[in-house]
Structure formats: C-alpha cells, structure tokens
Amino acid sequence: MVVRALTGHDVVMEALAHPGVRKEARHWGPWARGEIPMDWPLISWVAPDNMLTADGDRHRRLRTLVSQAFTPRRVEVLRPRVAEITADLLDAAEASGPGPVDLRAALALPLPMTVISELFGVAPEHRDTLHGLMHWVFDATVTPEQAARTNADMLAFLTELAEEKAGAPGDDLTSALLEARAEGDEKLSQSELVWTLILMIGAGYETTMNLITNSVHALLTHPEQLALVRSGEASWADAVEETLRWDASIQYLPLRYTAEDVTLAGVRVPKGEALLMGFGAAGRDPGQHGDDAHVFDLRREQRGHLAFSHGPHFCLGAGLARLEGTTALEALFTRFPRIRPAEGEDVPESPSIVASGRSRLPVVLG
Q1: Neighbours of 115 (CB within 10 A)
Q2: Which residues contact 202 (CB under 8 A, 6 or more apart)?
Q3: Is the Cα torsion angle 144, 145, 151, 152 positive or negative in sign?
Q4: Which keywords label this protein (predicted)?
Q5: Other CB atoms closer than 10 Å to residue 27's CB: what's the count?
Q6: Which residues pair with 250 in a beta bridge?
C-alpha cells in the first residue's frame, strides 16, 4: 500500500484544487479491492459517510445542510458561555493548590469538551465516554482491535444520541441537524446524521484542545512573544493565528485519493493512490512563509496557513475554535500574570500522526 505525503504549501494547494484528487475512498485502489480491514488504525478517517469524505454535489448538499444549523450567529451566541466555562475552570485550577497544574487537563481539555457537548446536547454523564472515544480516534498507537472497537463504539454512541434527540428535540445542534433541509433536498439520513456528528464533534473537541495547549506552550516557551501581547504590540488573536501556522492542531489529514492519473509538483501520481495532506508541514514552508518560517513570531504578516484546510472543505468550525482559543488565552494570562512552566516536568507530545498536541502541560500558576 502506497501513501504519498504532500508537505509543501504549493503542492498541498495544488492537490486541494485538482479535479482529479477526490475525498471518496471508492477512488482508492486498496479500499475498492477490499484490502483495508476495519481494524486498520486510521479506519475512522476513511470509513465515515459524511461531508469530510464526500465530493461534488453530495458534499455541497451535506455542507449546505450542516451550515444551516452551524451558523456564525449560533457560534457568536456562545461567546458569554465560553467565557463563563473558562472562568469556572480557572477557579478550579486555582483552588487545586500552589503546586503544578496540568493545564491540558484543567483547561484545554474540558473547555472544548464542555462547549461541544452543550452545543450538540451531550449529557454531562456521557462526556467522559465521548472524550475516551475521541482520544482513540486521534491516537496513532492504537492496536487494530482498539481501532475497530472505537469505530463501532463511536457509531453506537452517536446513533443513540441521534435517536434520543429525534424523540425529544432540544435547543442544540443535533436537534437542528435533524430538522435541517436545503431547498430541493431531503433531510440528512440517519447514517449521514450520525457520521456528521462524528465529524463535527471530533473536529470541535480534539483540535481545539490542541490549539489551546499548543498556544499556551508556545507563549510560555517564547516569553518575548508573550511580552508583545502584554504590551499591546500583538493580540491574543495574533497568538492563536501564529500557533495555527507554526504548530497546527492537524498536522496530516488522511486521506485524499487520485481518481485519475495526476501530476502534482511535476510528479506523476497514478490513479487509485492515497495522499496524506501535510497541513502542518505547509505551515512551516519557507516558500510560503519566508526563511524564518520555523520561528514563532506574533509580528509576522500572515500569508495564509492551511490549519483549517482550504476551498470547499474549509473547516466550518474555524470560528468556534478561534473564539475558544482567544478566550482561553486572554483569561488565563490575565488572571495569572506570573504563570510559568513547571520546572523539571516533562511535556510529552501526543502520539499521533494526525494531530499535534501535548499529553500534559504542567505549569505553575503563580
């Protein structure tokens, strides 16, 4: 099985725009021949039946239906609630005592988990289960048995959520998706709804958790950049945007497929092959971002990163991720101006080919 990784900004953009590069796995030779087992570690990125894996008219229909429910207005209405959840989490972190606090566990994880759970109507008692399932989806160390079980358990969990909301609709995005209908189109089918929930909840939780963790880690390890924000020379939005470029939450997004023989960056790629899109690597491409692309610099003129992809598949949740990221950073560093990394503590990177994040982020609040 051959998988080609695209790492330069220009070649990734070329592939994203190429009509011969598709999202539907039926174009992938090994998948079409039945050679990819359901316990393949990346099966949750290939098997779904949602807008992430759809092309053309079907993608347009699914995205239109989801866009009706996931509107910018709905995101903006969340702003006070995001600030409230953040304040509560920082209260709890401060009350835990003077010792080191794992900021990933105390803030970066529960903030997007609470926001996305409330947004989609996931009851508090079920959120730990959801967290565990999403963790395995992004973990590159899973065994084949874990991968197959995670895929099945995720389907079962969200099928139950959809059935619950169908019987008792509420003021949540799952209920809104059940009612969404584009002109001339049918509503989402049960399968489409469940797979859309998998996409939206996964994209809205793990990636935002990593954005917050990566942003805090970058600022604490680059105090001169943090000083720029404190002095007003840069903003928290600048910090979020530079983190998205420099340490993107999604490093490689599996997969796209060649539906015909194509040429990318002068290289011929035969029909039926898989492409791994290197969004993270493209963020540090000197050809796009300058010779200092490897440097974390809030005063940089942003030239267009790909942390949220590009084109028809641009992330619908980008606005919510930016809202949560800026809210968390401003609240954290304003409330704890003497925050610093905990000495002698490891900050291990999460074991994932898909995502970039830290398994722990120990800090002293000060």
Answers
A1: 22
A2: 134, 137, 138
A3: positive
A4: Heme, Iron, Metal-binding, Monooxygenase, Oxidoreductase
A5: 21
A6: 355
Q: Are 213 and 104 in contact (CB under 8 A)?
A: yes
pTM of the predicted structure, to 2 decimals? 0.90
Scan for tokens 């979020």, then name that residue: 240
The structure tokens listed for 43 are 């099966």
**293: phi then psi, degrees, rounded to nearest 5:** -60, -25
Q: Which helix (H) or strand (E) holds 348?
A: none
pLDDT in tens, the chain (366 residues): 788 999 999 999 999 999 999 999 999 999 999 999 988 888 878 888 788 889 999 899 889 888 887 788 888 889 999 999 999 999 999 998 888 999 999 999 999 989 988 888 988 888 888 878 877 766 667 787 887 788 788 889 988 988 888 889 988 888 888 887 655 667 788 788 888 888 887 778 889 999 999 999 999 999 999 999 999 999 999 999 999 999 999 999 889 999 999 999 999 999 999 999 999 999 999 999 999 999 999 999 999 999 999 999 999 889 999 999 999 999 999 999 999 999 988 898 988 888 899 999 999 998
Closest CA to 354 of 149, 34, 52, 30: 52
What number of helices (H) and strands (E) belong to the chain?
17, 9
163: number of Cβ within 10 Å: 12
Q: Which residues are within 8 A (CB) of 120 and not within 5 positions of it... i.e. 6 or more apart?
A: 161, 172, 173, 174, 197, 200, 201
The CATH class for the domain spanning 44-250+314-364 reads mainly alpha
Nearest to 1, CA basis, from 23, 24, 32: 32
Strands (E), the chain: 3-6, 21-22, 101-102, 253-258, 262-264, 267-269, 274-277, 340-341, 362-364
Tokens of 285: 């491409």
How far is it, in rounded angstroms, from Cα 329 to Cα 331?
Answer: 6
Give me the phi and psi of 328, to 5 degrees please.
-65, -45
Place of tokens 């039946």: 49
Separation of alpha carbons 20 and 63, rounded Å? 21
- Sheet containing 362-364: give its strands across: 101-102, 362-364, 340-341
